[in-house]
Structure formats: structure tokens, C-alpha cells
Design brief:
Elements: H1 3-24, E1 31-35, H2 42-59, E2 71-76, H3 84-87, E3 96-99, E4 104-108, H4 116-136, H5 145-156, H6 169-173, H7 191-212, H8 214-222, H9 230-238, H10 242-256, H11 259-266, H12 268-304, H13 320-364
Parallel strand pairs: 1-2, 2-4
Antiparallel strand pairs: 3-4
């Protein structure tokens, strides 16, 4: 074996030894985790540390020689507790963000799903940003933001802001996707456009991974320099122009991703409810009519039945005998008055006759 061959073997041995030693290095020796304020409980900090260690270990097959430099993870209670200088780096609604130039990762505990997989997915997403920055160094600023976020979402296995291909598939046919040049350096702040940016980045990078493989995709980041941008690397790796890449991705999104079918299925319940509204209104109307008829029939039956003793209204007794006695007294009084008048008239008549007879007798005498 000549000198050059021996040197190559020696270098390969050194490389393998470094990889083995790196694999034996504890993951948490590469990062320090701290609380951003007193509102962060020790249990949350412990859970974040365990998730970060598991995430870094899961990413080592993709980044076998990374990290090269330790980084810091800060766990904050909420977005409100972020220092003013950090709020500009945070996308509203996202559970974390990374600043690779400063080797910092910031996690917002209140926006992380409260289970181990949720925290680990967020850690994998943000650690991917840190590792991409170290891999591309000193040309980390050349990596497009859409590539950063797309790779982070693909490797973590979850998207931010619940972004999905279903959110953007209809935008393809209406030409309402965001231009990649508009999400090259940063993402929009508008909530709707921000979600579109995350979904678009995830879908495009996932499709690129299918086209050239994960290892080649990550290698493009490592190969960037002042003359070779990420886009140029994609063009060389796929032998397609950037316009052809976008067109082919549009076709995949429309016809190969299944996003349209999933979108229809997700909206199926809402569509069924809309279609069922006339039937529900008709059923409600029939029920109201039926209840009205039942009430009318029951009311008719109650009118036909004789009232029970309990239903007869109580009326206090009227003393009719008193009224009749009063009338009888008045009748008797009238009758007595009439008899007295007749007796008086008879007496007066008798007295008159007697007076006439006496006068006559006197005259005869």
C-alpha cells in the first residue's frame, strides 16, 4: 500500500472514530435549557429537556456530523412573557422559533400540545432550524425561509398552525399561492397568509423529498455557497428549471397528493348539514303541526266530557226562600190594605144608608 492509500485509510478511520464518539456523546451535552421566567414550572422545564434530547437523537441520522456547536433552549410561559426584542422573530400562533445565527431556540409552553409527542415535535422542528444553520454555515442566510420551514416540518413530522395541503389545494387552480420569492427571506404576518406559507413550504419540500430523496435534499443545504444557491442546487439535482419544478408540484398537489379528496371529506359533514337544513325545517314544521293537532283533539275531548266533581266551580248558596218570603209579605200587605179599604168603603156606605133612612123617618114623622 502506497503512502496516499495509507493516508486515505487513516482519514477514514479518524472519520469513523469521530462518528462513533459523537454517537456516544449524550444529546443533552450539546444544549443548555433554561426557563425564560418564573412562570415556567420545573416540571415543564424537565419535560422540555427530555423532549429536546429525544428530538436531537432522532435527527442525528439525518445530520450525522451535527451539531458542531452547542446551542441554548429557552422555555417561555407564553408569547406575552417574551422580551420585546424577541417578539419580532415569533410567528403568531407558532409554539416556538429559532435564531440560528445566535444558536438560540425559544419555546412557548402554552402553545405546545400537552403531551410528550407534542413537545418532542416542536423540539425537533426548532432543532432542525439550528442544525440547518450549522450545516449551511457560513452561508446560512442564503437558505430560503420556505426551505427552512419546509424541511423543519417534514423532519419533525408535524406542521405548524395546523397547516396542510388541504388548505392550499384550491389556491392552485385559482392562482392564489404565494410566490416563492415572497417567502424567501421571511413569512407574512397576516394570519391567513402565514398559514398558507407554512402549508406551501411543507408541501413543496415534501414533494422535493419524493423527487430526490431526503439525503440529497439535505446535501443541497451543505453545498450552498456564494455561487450555488439552494434553487440552483435544486435545478441541477432535478435537471428541471424552477418554473418546471413549480408546475410539476402544482400537478402533484392537484392530482397526486389526494388533498382535494381529503378536503372534500373534511367538509363533508358541513355540506351534509347544509343539505339537511331543508329536511330538518320540514320535519320541524310537521312536528309542530302534529303537536297542534294533538292539543286541539285533547281540548275537544275535554269539552265533550261532563265535568267531574273537582272541576265544577264552587258557587256560594243563594237564600231564595228569603226572597220569596219578602215577596209574600208584600203581597199580603197589599191584600190587607185592599180589604181595609173595602171594609172602610162598606162602613161608609152603611152609614150613608142609615143617615138617609133616619132623615126619611124624621121627615115622615
Amino acid at each position: 500500500m502506497d503512502y496516499d492509500g495509507a493516508l486515505v485509510v487513516f482519514l477514514l478511520c479518524i472519520l469513523l472514530l469521530s462518528v462513533c464518539l459523537r454517537a456516544q456523546t449524550p444529546a443533552n451535552s450539546w444544549f443548555a435549557i433554561t426557563a425564560g421566567g418564573p412562570e415556567v414550572a420545573s416540571e415543564v422545564l424537565q419535560r422540555a429537556e427530555q423532549a429536546a434530547e429525544a428530538a436531537l437523537q432522532s435527527l442525528q441520522p439525518v445530520f450525522p456530523l451535527l451539531p458542531r456547536q452547542p446551542f441554548r433552549i429557552v422555555v417561555h410561559g407564553s408569547e406575552e412573557s417574551l422580551p420585546e426584542g424577541l417578539k419580532a422573530s415569533h410567528h403568531v400562533g407558532s409554539p416556538g422559533f429559532a435564531i440560528p445565527a445566535q444558536h438560540e431556540i425559544h419555546i412557548l409552553a402554552d402553545l405546545v400540545r400537552h403531551d410528550s409527542s407534542g413537545m418532542q415535535a416542536v423540539m425537533a422542528h426548532e432543532i432542525t432550524h439550528e442544525l440547518l444553520g450549522q450545516l449551511a454555515n457560513p452561508f446560512g442566510e442564503l437558505l430560503p425561509r420556505w426551505a427552512h420551514e419546509g424541511i423543519a416540518q417534514v423532519l419533525s413530522g408535524e406542521t405548524y398552525l395546523d397547516a396542510s395541503e388541504e388548505n392550499i389545494v384550491w389556491r392552485v387552480s385559482t392562482n392564489q399561492l404565494l410566490p416563492f420569492s415572497a417567502i424567501e427571506s421571511d413569512f407574512p404576518r397576516d394570519p391567513v397568509q402565514l398559514r398558507v406559507a407554512y402549508a406551501q413550504s411543507f408541501s413543496f419540500v415534501a414533494w422535493l423529498e419524493q423527487q430526490i430523496g431526503r439525503a440529497r435534499l439535505i446535501k443541497l443545504v451543505d453545498e450552498m455557497d456564494k455561487e450555488t444557491s439552494f434553487w440552483r442546487g435544486l435545478v441541477l439535482a432535478t435537471n428541471r428549471t424552477s418554473a418546471e419544478l413549480e408546475t410539476d408540484w402544482h400537478d402533484y398537489l392537484l392530482y397526486g397528493s389526494g388533498a382535494r379528496s381529503r378536503s372534500l371529506l373534511s367538509q363533508c359533514f358541513s355540506l351534509l348539514m347544509i343539505l339537511a337544513l331543508p329536511l330538518l325545517a320540514l320535519a320541524m314544521r310537521r312536528r309542530m303541526r302534529s303537536e297542534a293537532k294533538v292539543r286541539e283533539r285533547m281540548a275537544a275531548q275535554e269539552r265533550q266530557q261532563p265535568p267531574t266533581f273537582a272541576e265544577v266551580p264552587y258557587n256560594p248558596p243563594v237564600d231564595a226562600d228569603l226572597d220569596f218570603a219578602e215577596e209574600d209579605r208584600e203581597d199580603r200587605k197589599d191584600h190587607e190594605d185592599r180589604e181595609d179599604r173595602e171594609d172602610r168603603e162598606d162602613r161608609e156606605d152603611r152609614e150613608d144608608r142609615k143617615d138617609r133612612e133616619d132623615r126619611k123617618d124624621r121627615e115622615d114623622f
